[in-house]
């Protein structure tokens, strides 16, 4: 569980007392490839931290096509945050795209600790600012302004993630068909 504590400390250093309280709510779970971790329509109750493996965050369109929104690699936090906050059914599912080892912790228990430990609240603020504002804003703009080819190149630049994905997952993430992806790959020749 040290990986998770180290990742939190990147955003804001936690006291020994806060770290000990957090460790009490953590548990490690293993998910097999293609195992559903959270099903769309269920109310999300947990946060996840990827120790090893790869998770996909997706929805299904009216034609039954999987649309990937995000991928979560090692040392990533994952959750259906809007479902947790609103206590409403999640619009997204989370699936293990590889055999994965994940630290799981209750959203309610975590939120209680956030209210009790100022340093944990500062972590939460720093994390949300960086990942939900600074990091997410350019992604939303790129989705509206960049071509699929430009977005493919950006994904390709993250070699560690790129080579872990199947072609249909990349096409889904880019919002294009596998045929369109083949054309882009042929044109770019990489």
From TrEMBL:
Q: Gene3D superfamilies of this UniProt entry?
A: Jelly Rolls
Domain Cyclic nucleotide-binding span(s) in chain numbering = 10-131
Query: By its UniProt entry, which SMART domains does this protein fall under?
Result: cNMP
Q: Which CDD domains match?
A: CAP_ED
Q: Which Pfam families match?
A: cNMP_binding
InterPro entries in alphabetical order: cNMP-bd_dom, cNMP-bd_dom_sf, RmlC-like_jellyroll
- The protein depicted here goes by the name Crp/Fnr family transcriptional regulator
- Species of the source: Chryseobacterium zhengzhouense
